[in-house]
């Protein structure tokens, strides 16, 4: 199981520690470093900055929002950074949910998310292969555009720049069972939001037909500390925000996933509290047990024991979120 460093997206401003952490991770032998975006900083610019200060570590987006760019624009970002980094780029994509897609990006959330995702990946693959002009008469993506509000004179094109790699890895952040199953068919890897090594049945059916070499790279908060309860508080804060605030009360993919993992009543309670403006109560309502099983928190010996559970399953890469230098070093030693 390889280790990766997941830096996420910025808060009010750039995190002054991110570059140093990425450089340290490369020195410690970490395989990859990942950036993200929501409705603030973008994923590609910080990754390019990190690429300029490193030489070996692979570079991934976890996740770049599909609604933020057309698939050809996303492919341009990926192939450009792949050239600049000497072939280290991995493209992780996410569809997000209706509140973010329509509220921030000003686009309609697709009526058929699976079809929209499949078309998006198809276009990116065509750009990277560069076998001919990009052509797709899709439901959500058309190249050339054929909508009634168009001119009708769009021209099929292929990229001027020759991509460095036709097989640049494309990974998807999928949460629903059908979406995960499709991911195993159309992508090179999957980026789970929550992964519990003690609940393999949650994803068993969706992962029944895994192709050889398929990447499964969940993110997990890791923290070497003496007080487990205190170390879990940032995990609970993240869960409270995602489950309570990252979606509508009637359509929240994160809450639905928590429910499928055995915490349905707790997920709905977190939503109720968060949407009522009682955010601190929502965070405290997150069960310690759930926060604990999807993270690696506690003394070194406890983390070493729990790390074995992650190694026994199909996980190929563990992406460590919100780390500190000491935790990064400990995990590198334990995984070495």
Automatic annotation (TrEMBL):
Show the InterPro entries listed in the entry. Answer: F420-G6PD/mer (IPR050564), F420_OxRdatse_Rv3520c_pred (IPR019951), Luciferase-like_dom (IPR011251), Luciferase-like_sf (IPR036661)
Task: List each copy of the Luciferase-like domain by range.
Answer: 17-315
Please verify whether the record's keywords include Lipid biosynthesis.
no
**Which keywords does the record carry?**
Oxidoreductase
Annotated Gene Ontology MF terms?
A: oxidoreductase activity, acting on paired donors, with incorporation or reduction of molecular oxygen
Which Pfam family is one of this chain's hits? Bac_luciferase
**Where are the coiled-coil regions?**
none
Q: By its UniProt entry, which NCBIfam families does this protein fall under?
A: F420_Rv3520c
- Protein name per the record: LLM class F420-dependent oxidoreductase
Organism the protein comes from: Streptomyces subrutilus
């Amino acid at each position: 199981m390889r280790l990766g460093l997941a830096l996420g997206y910025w808060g009010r401003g750039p995190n002054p520690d991110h570059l140093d952490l990425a450089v340290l991770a490369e020195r410690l032998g970490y395989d990859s470093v990942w950036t993200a975006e929501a409705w603030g900083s973008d994923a590609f610019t910080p990754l390019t900055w990190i690429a300029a200060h490193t030489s070996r570590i692979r570079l991934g987006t976890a996740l770049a929002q599909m609604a933020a760019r057309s698939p050809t624009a996303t492919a341009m970002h990926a192939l450009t950074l792949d050239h600049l980094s000497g072939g280290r780029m991995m493209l992780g994509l996410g569809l997000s949910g209706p509140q973010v897609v329509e509220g921030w990006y000003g686009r309609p959330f697709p009526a058929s998310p699976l079809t929209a995702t499949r078309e998006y990946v198809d276009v990116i693959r065509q750009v990277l292969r560069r076998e001919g002009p990009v052509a797709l008469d899709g439901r959500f993506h058309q190249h050339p555009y054929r909508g009634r509000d168009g001119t009708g004179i769009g021209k099929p094109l292929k990229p001027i720049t020759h991509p460095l790699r036709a097989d640049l890895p494309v990974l998807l952040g999928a949460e629903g069972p059908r979406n995960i199953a499709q991911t195993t068919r159309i992508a090179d890897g999957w980026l789970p939001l929550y992964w519990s090594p003690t609940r393999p049945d949650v994803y068993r059916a969706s992962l029944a037909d895994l192709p050889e070499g398929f990447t499964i790279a969940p993110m997990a908060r890791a923290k070497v500390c003496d007080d487990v309860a205190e170390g879990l508080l940032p995990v609970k804060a993240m869960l409270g925000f995602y489950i309570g605030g990252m979606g509508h009360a009637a359509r929240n993919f994160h809450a639905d996933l928590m429910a499928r993992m055995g915490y349905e009543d707790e997920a709905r309670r977190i939503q109720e509290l968060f949407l009522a403006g009682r955010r601190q109560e929502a965070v405290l309502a997150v069960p310690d047990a759930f926060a604990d099983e999807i993270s690696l928190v506690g003394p070194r010996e406890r983390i070493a024991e729990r790390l074995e559970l992650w190694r026994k399953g199909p996980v190929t890469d563990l992406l460590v979120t919100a780390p500190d230098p000491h935790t990064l070093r400990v995990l590198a030693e334990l995984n070495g």
